[in-house]
Design a protein that fits this description.
- The complex is a heterodimer of chains A (294) and B (276).
- With 294 residues, chain A is mainly α.
- Chain A has 2 domains: 39 residues; 214 residues, MetI-like (MetI-like fold, Orthogonal Bundle).
- Chain A is built from 12 helices and 2 strands, in the order H-H-E-E-H-H-H-H-H-H-H-H-H-H.
- Chain A has a two-stranded antiparallel sheet.
- Chain B has one domain: MetI-like (MetI-like fold, Orthogonal Bundle), CATH 1.10.3720.10.
- By secondary structure, chain B is mostly helical.
- Helices cover 81% and strands 0% of the residues of chain B.
- The chains are: A mainly alpha (294), B mainly alpha (276).
- At the A-B interface, helix 1, helix 3, helix 4, helix 5 and helix 9 of A face helix 1, helix 3, helix 4, helix 5 and helix 6 of B.
Amino acid sequence: MKTSRNTQMAGTYRAALAPYSVWSFLFVLVPLIFIAYYAFTDNSFSFTTENITRFFTATSNMVQEDGSTREVRTYLLIFMRSLRLAVISTLVCLLMGYPIAYIMARAGEKAQKTMVTLIMIPMWMNFLIRTYAWMTILQDTGIINGILGKFGISPIHIIGTETAVIIGMVYDYFPYMVLPIYSILAKLDGKLLEAARDLGCGTLSVLRRVVFPLSLPGVISGMTMVLIPSISTFYISQKLGNGKFFLIGDAIEGQYVANNLHFAAAIAFILMLILLVGMTVMKYVTTRYVYGGE
Amino acid sequence: MKLSAKIYSAIIFGFLFAPILVLIVFSFNEAKSLSVFSGVSLKWYQELFRDKNTLEAVKNTLVLAASATAISTVMGTMAAVGINKLRSKWYRAAMNTVTDIPMSNPDIITGISLMLMFVFVGRLFGASTSLNFFTMLIAHITFCTPYVILQVLPKLQQMDKSLHEAAMDLGCTPMRAFLKVEIPEIMPGIITGAIMAFTLSLDDFVISYFTSGNGFETLPIRIYGMTKKTVTPKMYALATIIFLVTLSLLLISNFVDNEDQARLRQARKEKKGKKD
């Protein structure tokens, strides 16, 4: 009796999963195949590798600071710039975020809860408007320069520079760095720190030899969670970079707007592939070195 | 907390809240400027409530978020129940992977991939514009459901399995046992998942941007359009309202979670008391 009931129930459980299985096949996997399909076809849907080659070979003239022009590989340059800005933003997030995650983890229970909520609140403000608010703060006639002017300091020019783009990225994705690190540090066994101190470690060397290595999984997940949206953003660079710093996301969006769907797909395909390879390498390195090859 | 830690926290939270503060303050600005404050007024809020297109976008956003939340909560909860009972290792691994994809892929890739498929299928049927409310709904359900699953699945795994058997021994049919035992037990996870789905849907811009069309405009898309031109404090007024609404949703979900944990602690205490 019980077995027949259980097999009957097993059928029900499978049926419960069925809609999601079908859904994720149709709307997660198949669309990814469509990226590859569009990337390797032309407008009449016959096979071509031209879109992919165009990414690596298209050239344009870039005006340099001294006014002369130089021929550059457009999309490789854009990709390297995206990578560089995303890496810098990730590192800035890490340097700024690690200490605050550590402070949060060491605070009292109530203070911890409040601080976690405070870190999360900015994420609930629409990110377009958050970014726009930075634009009004950083503008040449903006709030920062208004304050500087009151002290008789000449205005600084930030908007339209790479610095402004980095500030935007750091601001928008900062919580993604802090929260994973915090959740690992909060679970850290205090006895380990005591033991290290008893064995003669100073405060700094406890941090370096015990706390930091143990928090690496959080650091790595935080870095991934900042790097991926920063490398693919297209709004931040448009607003804070004054459109001067085209990023890979801008390139995809631009091709979409221009209705060059096949080339947009090719850029997306290459970006996806690079991220996939990057993530796999990172996963391999972490399991190998952080978890000691478990 | 040490003084240095306090100062550092103050700097970080100052950095995080400065733009939000600026935004809220300037939404009450009398003048049109977003950088010089000239006096308190509610005029931008009044203007906002007269702006038909924005109100329409608010309505669209809410309809879309509510529909996406309803469908993804039901489908996600069902999926979590199914995944929890999966015996086949590779099926479980496959489900984990597809659940992970929309969360770890950049939004722009998710958006582009869905858009390409919609456009392609639309062309097959000879439609000139294939993007509309339904393509957006599909996209939103696709990125919301994984978050529901991730909220519900742990609750199912934490559950005491003997409860279900006890209910059946006491005469419940399996279905009835499920409705009477499992559902109440995982309810907090379902609610948190639903709230997450709702706020994610409300706030999404990138995926919506690529999958919207045919005159169906949500708020983030409208905001994007507005920030392409010069922005007035009207948009800040709008942002302030959205912020307060999402903030209260966040606080409610926190509250539900706390209640849930308090209930768990209470239950554990009682269990312990009985053992003694």
